[in-house]
Amino acid sequence: MKPIHPNGLHETVADIVRELGDKVNVRTATLDQPEQGLPDEILNQTDVLIWWGHCAHDKVEDGLVSKIQERVLKGMGLIVLHSGHYSKIFRRMMGTSCDLRWRDDTYERVFCISPNHPIAKGIPEHFDLGIEECYGERFDIPQPDEVIFEGWFDIGEVFRSGCVWNRGYGKVFYFQPGHETNNAFQNQYIRQIIKNAVEWIAPAVYRDSMGSPHINPTLEELRK
Amino acid sequence: MKPIHPNGLHETVADIVRELGDKVNVRTATLDQPEQGLPDEILNQTDVLIWWGHCAHDKVEDGLVSKIQERVLKGMGLIVLHSGHYSKIFRRMMGTSCDLRWRDDTYERVFCISPNHPIAKGIPEHFDLGIEECYGERFDIPQPDEVIFEGWFDIGEVFRSGCVWNRGYGKVFYFQPGHETNNAFQNQYIRQIIKNAVEWIAPAVYRDSMGSPHINPTLEELRK
Amino acid sequence: MKPIHPNGLHETVADIVRELGDKVNVRTATLDQPEQGLPDEILNQTDVLIWWGHCAHDKVEDGLVSKIQERVLKGMGLIVLHSGHYSKIFRRMMGTSCDLRWRDDTYERVFCISPNHPIAKGIPEHFDLGIEECYGERFDIPQPDEVIFEGWFDIGEVFRSGCVWNRGYGKVFYFQPGHETNNAFQNQYIRQIIKNAVEWIAPAVYRDSMGSPHINPTLEELRK
Amino acid sequence: MKPIHPNGLHETVADIVRELGDKVNVRTATLDQPEQGLPDEILNQTDVLIWWGHCAHDKVEDGLVSKIQERVLKGMGLIVLHSGHYSKIFRRMMGTSCDLRWRDDTYERVFCISPNHPIAKGIPEHFDLGIEECYGERFDIPQPDEVIFEGWFDIGEVFRSGCVWNRGYGKVFYFQPGHETNNAFQNQYIRQIIKNAVEWIAPAVYRDSMGSPHINPTLEELRK
To answer: ipTM score of the complex?
Structure first.
């Protein structure tokens, strides 16, 4: 049987982004690499970080999580896929538990409820994803700035499956499909959504700090 | 067979609100009454207006719709039930088509995704409503200030079934259950939600106009 | 004295958009033209409509307002400038009175509070606009999907001066500067914001109706 | 000279809440107490926690911050005053830096832009606070679920001075006035807002975990 992720799940996702062509320069990082794959010189050159993780969330070092958070607040886009909902970095950016009700594989249909969002470009108002691990509400997240996708699962669950939030000068996109034993990443619409998200979430500009200089003209000066 | 609404659907809903006891003074109004049941002296004493309509939306007079809109903007709460999504007053308050995808009766489960909202008090995180007319996304509404309930329908639909919006000094709550041939209004949770909504949406205060007086102290006066 | 708008205010605004070059094809329309400048064949080819009006809001025909609303719901971007806050079309899209507290000319500073929004690209965290007609809160609008700019006025007023809302498949951007006797449209940042807004609000796609076909597979079919 | 806070700032704030009478049972806690004033048995009985801090944010133990966060997610209300914007607990709940532009004392006017929110009950559309430490935008917070108050400062700053967010089953209210050397807490409207906030933010119910039991009826069972 052909493996679903012959080069690892990270390469499966990277291949999707590579379809954006010359616009992007794609790297992958894994936990077993030095500095967990994200030394400063790489993190500080990264415009968009896509995070997928499952069983090893606890192994990610708190110091690295803080560095990633700081980088997002300066402008880096963060895309969190599937079981990454429970990653340290997503929970850090949200301030909530990010818990949800987990159920086993079932049939999922995805609805697009914000069709004019750039992430939804080229996506129909609903499409059938097929078998996917089921995540159910209540999903313990802050109210999203925009809910773009909602998932329907045939065993009786709904889920806010695609959500965006501003955080500092950066943005966060959470997207629910992508269980390692299913085929979400082979679905044309899932692939399109991930590519749309990368383009949308890439920063227009980085700002090193909030500290824009104080404004010091007096009112008399203002009125001249 | 016992009729579902022996005194008309409006009395079915009124009986729910009457369970709030002495706090409320409940009237009903129907299209066939003089001035469509809402002459000025009644409308101007109304704190919360619950709207249910189905086939006769077009018969509601535009002038009355404008008066209701103005009253909401001054503070009156507006609760719109089920097929009222397509009423003139709801569309007026929203600015959108308020269209949706309609399907026939099916099985609905309701999820509460904003459990700390006053409208959700006493409501479990999900409950089974049973057979209800199916409304599907995309529901053409402005982004709600808060989505409180989501509906799951077994034929493959999801719906933002309970949503709130501020409008002027008033508020609007749309709630999807309540088809005339089904039993939603006999469901204990639906009844509780409607009562919660009435209490939450009643205005703390009315304000006659935006026109608070201009602020005229000079800066020199300010700084004294 | 050189007039501020030698060819009319509409041409002043059009010249800003023309700086986008070949990407855009700019027309203007005024009330005194046949069909108030917006016959169907023109409206239906328009991707972005910029609306400025002041004293003649009442002269705009209701039928035209309905056509513009419908066009926005299908995807057309609508940018409303300054005193257009009180236009029929803006009030129609909002569902509120869109009233505000008006005061005379004073000194305005503009703050950018959503610096990662595309409309804010290239705009500093604050800039001094100088003398502008003063609009004060409370501005009777629905809660914006995002507040991008806030205005500070030296006589003691604040204003949500740049706000966006989704409506149907389209979007609406309201922007407060632009009084006819002042120089807002000569300000480099105001010009940049208007150009950014045109690019951001142009539709990716038009959709003719909500009426995507019903979904009819049975659950048994789904599970195959 | 009479001191502004004869019994410490915490008692100044406590006295405001005590005006709610028998409805409340008010305690205070300070950093120098055992377990920083918030041992488990006290924290777990607390419905609303009001946080004020200034120079000693770093001294608050991370373990305590985690316990408070967990308590908020289960339903406890959190009110953060003034320089508490930079407290560990507020930053934890927000996921952002919560930085702002700080300036010295100046004249502040407060605008109420969500007049129908319970926190605004009895508050006029604007009131003059007088001399207060100036906080300026951009305030690095997630988009609030609702901005209730905005501050205008005469040296040319605006600030989202009253904001609310849902977090888990709890809520957070940030309110900007309250510098230790000024008189905000003697202002009648500030006092009213704090009392309103305590009443609004107190939880209707606590929930111990997200873990509502899985839903296990089969579709065949559902359809019976």
So the answer is: 0.93
